[in-house]
What we know:
Blueprint: H1 2-25, H2 28-57, H3 73-79, H4 81-99, H5 104-114, H6 119-132, H7 134-146, E1 158-160, E2 173-175, H8 186-205, H9 209-214, H10 228-253, H11 256-267, H12 272-283, H13 295-307, H14 316-321, E3 322-326, E4 339-343
Antiparallel strand pairs: 1-2, 3-4
Helix pairs in contact: 1-2, 1-4, 2-4, 2-6, 5-6, 7-8, 8-10, 12-13
Amino acid sequence: MVSLLSELGGLTRDIQNYIRDVDREGRLFEQSFCTELKAEMSDYYKLVSDIEGRLFKAPRSLWPGESQLGVTLRRMYCWTTEARQKLRLMATAIVKVQEGKGGGDVLSTISTLVDDGDPFIQAFAQQLLKTASAPFNHILVSWITDGELVDPYKEFFIREREGRRDMFWSEKYTVASDMIPVHINGEMTRKIFQIGRSLNFLRVACDDAQWVAEGGPRTQLTGDISDPRTLETFVYRSSSMVNERLMSVLRDKFGLVSHIEAIRRYLLFEQGDFALALMEVLENQMDRSGQNIMAHDLSAVLSSAVRSSNAQYEDPDRLSAIVLTFREENAQLRGWDEVALKYNL
């Protein structure tokens, strides 16, 4: 019994040391985790103060049969049973959090305690998880409603690649699979990534920030996304909304369909008269050294092929996107492998 009561001191010291370290240099998720630890420790300090008050008020000497009026070891053991369980859980959670990588990994670590069969442990872990997940939910909401990644400590499972900020769609963002919380499955991860990336693309590349702010997923956010079911419903609804808007902008504002048709006709050589004219004009250049052929010479070849085919009736914006160039800067025009027909958007 004495050893169990003494355990409280060691657990308290370890928790206080961790809280002090996090207050000094902790990241957002750790600070949020410590918020709940501080609240629980505050309740524990009140219990200690109450016991201390009882101790000072207890009679200095007891007559036989009057032990129930004082503070005994057994009574202290009974009074601190629940507090001891909480301190043990907090110490266990701290160890697991320190072993993890932070961010979503912290939430996954705490979630393992939620799955415990003990109702007391489960209820305590759920409260701990709710508080610790606040920074994650804040970053998540910003990502899936505005397409903005506000993650100064790189604790979210979506990362922005350095030096790729101009590649809005293909290379700007990536998923850190080891930071995905356990309550977010693979399909939902893909949709969350797609929603934020699409919103960022609409806002920055398509100049559609007004819709993102006034008509985007934020208008559908009514529940508490800390609840997994609410989050899943919101993500699936937002995914459909954002995809529909993105396709509408690309189709109506930027003429996506006509660009695809142009690529099919001219790059895949579906328009036979253009392909034949291009090959004939380009073949006449094969006997010339690559050193004597400049980029404008290839432009003249392309222009000649266009004038010699029905491509001359194509929309000027589509024709201007077709480029005939060398695959490499120092290539020589000795064969078909040295040239490339490209479509620049």
